[in-house]
Amino acid sequence: MQLDNASVAQLREWESQLTEQYQAILAKKLNLDLTRGKPSAEQLNLSDAMDGLLQGNYIAADGTDTRNYGGLDGLPEAKQLGANIMDVDAANVLVGGNSSLTLMFQVMLTAYQFGLKDSASAWKNEGDVKFLCPVPGYDRHYTVCEQLGIKMINVPMTSTGPDMDVVESFIKADSSIKGMWCVPKYSNPTGVVYSDETVERIAKLGQIASANFRVFWDNAYSVHDLSPNAPKLASILEATRRHGTEDSVVQFASTSKITHAGSGVAFVAASAANLAGFKKFLNSCTIGPDKVNQIRHTRFLPTKDALMAHMGKHAELLNPRFDAVLTALGKAFDGTDLGAWEKPVGGYFVSFDTRKGCAKETVRLAAEAGVKLTPAGATYPYGKDPEDRNIRIAPSVPTVPEVVGAMEVFVTCVKLASVKQQLASLA
């Protein structure tokens, strides 16, 4: 199906056929959800052995009674778990509660209101504060910025990461830019893994940016490979050390999509200076994290090998779901001008770009047919996709047959929205 070269008669014939197919779908009264990248119940079951694992032994390796107060940094073995996930030194890790998003908000709040260095370094002292946002990206990152009144600037994503020519030009021209969001491995939603060159150039941003610039490096999918031959992500920590910019990057991760999503352990990795500034904030609002949960996780995932073996079990459950999505897209759209998509080998999402102006209508049609998708525009700051193209598909929660059924609906809705738009343009 090539719409650009089709006659009006051909388009009307396609519209009639697709409308008939769509009406048949409506009659099925489906109720399927592809909105959020949550682990399925099968994936959550993989970590049920943590329940009762401690058997009354709450004492950590260094003698800490994990039932008591204190331990702002986290247990040493929990810091090592974070280091295993993020590929950093344990000395650079602070262990938080169950949510890396909470840590991101807290670090940004600290940088904005109090300063990660001292009160003079607080972003609020400098008037307008702006953040660079590679798009399409993660909607909850944008919510953090909106909550603090930080203005967001779109940066195009490429197959190797953010367009670094654009990033560098923005930073050189505007001193009010104080940071950038990054999901460097299996980027949400595109699945892109940043190239070595991109990582290197991001590490050097601290040399050209204004004072107190920080990259928020959300490495949420660092060990979430779907293939044993998965691409490797270069170490941003090592790169910043080479360029003398270690203070310019703060890294985040969690076990939310590794163990139990609602009761995991989150981590922040940063330079000694950044950690000191952040801990000053934490000291004012907590007496310490949940160390019982930390020790439970470290005994369940005691080594990097144990971690990766566990993630291999996740991959076994996720692969058929991703295969169902990619097979449906390939069968329907290869060789057409109806859309484009990434073929991720890890993470939790498939990013699909419709023809310009068709994403919202596709999502609307799918919703009426009983398939919920992430709202069109959600992958852009302020919910505004300037080309109305991007749709994020999250296939992890439904069963494989449900994913197959949802994709049949999705494909039909993309085609119908595209044909109707093309007909309208020729009217």
Automatic annotation (TrEMBL):
Keywords: Aminotransferase, Transferase. GO terms for molecular function: L-aspartate:2-oxoglutarate aminotransferase activity. The keyword Acyltransferase does not apply. Transmembrane segments: none annotated. It comes from the Bacteria. The keyword Glycosyltransferase does not apply. This is Aminotransferase.
